[in-house]
């Protein structure tokens, strides 16, 4: 038996933010990030729509990118005081994910972060509040997913919280919010979405309900992402839908080791002054993981199907896999994303010597490999790597060398 869960309601299209006027409740808390939603006027609009709905509104702002356990606990304490019956989270994946974790702690104040991380082990939510998510980036699709990614900075590790309980009740996918994204954010979040769709399609948990969503998302992202990056706003709007479809697929089909590796490398070198941004990490690791997974016959066939839908040519599955890898690397080139950690600059752009020194990478490699294997996304990957294989794979991701094992 398998389960397929999505938000009860999804409003989409330009101007759909106004749907906030129709929420029914007494008090709403609005969770946002560092300032982009305020700067572009979306926060004020959201607050006034909720007030129009007759609600008292409190704003929790300043949620940082890659939110910490500490931020979650503080936000939950603020919710405890205000007692909202709606949690409205607006912005990129970071504030929405943080709000999801705050929601758990608000409903069950005794819950620890460790409790939250027990995969599909959450108690019933919605005893105090319902959740509405409004994305402003086109990538994570957290507005429709059963996931929240929180970083434990004492360990330098990102932990996925995974449970259908945290799938939002309402998602508002209004492309107006995505139009203010700077180019780099378009590139990273767009490749995150491409990774979601491809990993969902080859996941061992794929099914008839997720395949169509994944394939259509892949076709749309191939058609629209680079143009969106280059400033075409109609493509930007379409990407907002594409990433959401990819999210519907992976929330139910789960992901694979590209995400395991991105989660465990993202904050692992924070002491050297930067993060490997989630979408950029995925963009770099995806071609390597495809080469690794394609040794599994079922995965190879499925990558071949993806290549066919993308019209990439190839006389057999081996050629199709090679064409898919080359195409994805071409997308990275078109959007100024490096091909490996070794050339990943602190500003995320390609550079001769990246911010992660080789000796530091090698010293931490074993622990990162062990952590990546233990990540919640590894179980549904089509090929299960050993620790040695994961180390080799991560080395290929550092040096940008070919995966031939
Ligand atoms: N929950 C899930 O299913 C899921 C899936 C993938 C990734 N994630 C997580 O989501 C996080 C990344 O989220 P993200 O990529 O959406 O970025 P983000 O939320 O971290 O935001 C990145 C930056 O972009 C700014 N920003 C956001 N929207 C903007 C807009 N419209 N205009 C201008 N600036 C804007 C923010 O202020 C912030 O500075 C990571 O922590 C990642 O691990 C979660
Ligand atoms: Zn992702």
Can you walk me through this structure?
By secondary structure, the chain is an alpha/beta fold. It folds into 2 domains: 170 residues, Rossmann fold; 217 residues, Dehydroquinate synthase-like, alpha domain. The chain is built from 14 helices and 8 strands. The strands form 2 sheets. A 6-stranded parallel sheet has the order 1-8-5-4-2-3, with helices on both faces. The chain has a two-stranded antiparallel sheet with strand order 6-7. A hairpin with a 4-residue loop joins strand 6 and strand 7. Helix 3 crosses helix 4 and helix 6 packs parallel to helix 8. The longest helix is centred in the middle third of the chain and has 22 residues. Zinc ion binds next to helix 6 and helix 10.
Brief sketch in words of this structure:
This protein has about 400 residues and is of the alpha/beta class. The protein is built from 14 helices and eight strands.
Please report the first level of CATH classification, the CATH class of the largest domain: Mainly Alpha
Low-confidence regions: none
Ends distance: 34 Å
By CATH, the topology of the largest domain is Dehydroquinate synthase-like, alpha domain
The CATH homology group name of the largest domain: Dehydroquinate synthase-like - alpha domain
Report the sheet with the most strands, covering strand number, pairing sense and barrel closure.
6 strands, parallel
**In what range is the share of β-strand residues?**
5-15%
